[in-house]
Amino acid sequence: MLLDLPILEKGSFYFIKDGNSHFILEDKTKRGLTIKETSIDEKLNVKADKGMIHDMDGIGHWVIIRWYFPKDSYDQSKVLEHAEAMEKKYTELRELTCPDDD
């Protein structure tokens, strides 16, 4: 079960978990989203769980909930690079949409 896996790294927007044969990068912003399919993420070329979100016009968009990086091809530091890039993107988005009122 994914909930029981040890957490190796965590950020504000991600977890990296230790699976048997994979490092699992989980997007915290997609928690609770129902998995609609598992397929290859075209960008990273690894297996990914995907869900569907709908915008204000009712148009559905596929989003990735978690990625599975095979341990025989990726080490933890490489997965962390992807996680930190996601962290940076979400932090910039948050700063853009919710600036501090200092």
Number of domains: 1
- Largest sheet entry: 6 strands, antiparallel
Helix tally equals 1
Give the strand order, joined by hyphens, for the main sheet: 1-2-3-6-5-4
- Global mean pLDDT: 93
Percent helix among the residues? Answer: 10-25%
Give the number of DSSP strands.
6
What is the H/E order? EEEEEEH
Shape: globular
Q: Rg to the nearest angstrom?
A: 15 Å
* Poorly predicted tracts of residues: none
Q: What is the strand content?
A: 35-45%
Oligomer: single chain
Structural class: alpha+beta
Keywords:
single chain, 102 residues, alpha+beta, globular
How would you characterize this protein structure?
- The chain is of the alpha+beta class and 102 residues long.
- It has one domain (7-97).
- It is built from one helix and six strands, in the order ββββββα.
- The chain has a six-stranded antiparallel sheet with strand order 1-2-3-6-5-4, with helices on one face.
Q: What topology emerges from the helices and strands here?
A:
Blueprint: E1 7-10, E2 14-18, E3 22-27, E4 37-41, E5 46-54, E6 60-70, H1 76-97
Antiparallel strand pairs: 1-2, 2-3, 3-6, 4-5, 5-6
Question: How would you summarize this macromolecular structure in one to three sentences?
Answer:
The protein is an alpha+beta fold and about 100 residues long. The protein has one helix at about 75-95, and strands at about 5-10, 15-20, 20-25, 35-40, 45-55, 60-70. The protein is globular.
